[in-house]
Lipoprotein (Vibrio cholerae), 94 residues
Amino acid sequence: MRFHLADEKNPKTEANWIEAPVLRYVRIRQSTNDNTERRAVVELWVKLGSIHEKAQFTLADRSQMTHPVLLGREFIRDIALVDVSRKYIQTEQK
């Protein structure tokens, strides 16, 4: 599967495209209605601070969303803690 990771800082160029094999397809039900959507699942490396792990992602058009990627409980479980009282504590990589 070839897809673009939405990024407001970088224009969509050939270098911004990612290719990854599809592991499987899943059906996702939206919280706003009963409609389901079939999405491809891919596995990618994720670097978050000092954490470098593989994670599975469902692919969807998030170009109109606030966050281009969502990290779920499965990614965080056993490798990180979330302090909901703090925001943006990881410094940006230069």
Observations:
- The beta strands are 2-4, 17-19, 22-29, 36-48, 51-58.
- The chain has a mean pLDDT of 84.
- The chain has one domain: 2-76.
- Helices lie at 73-76.
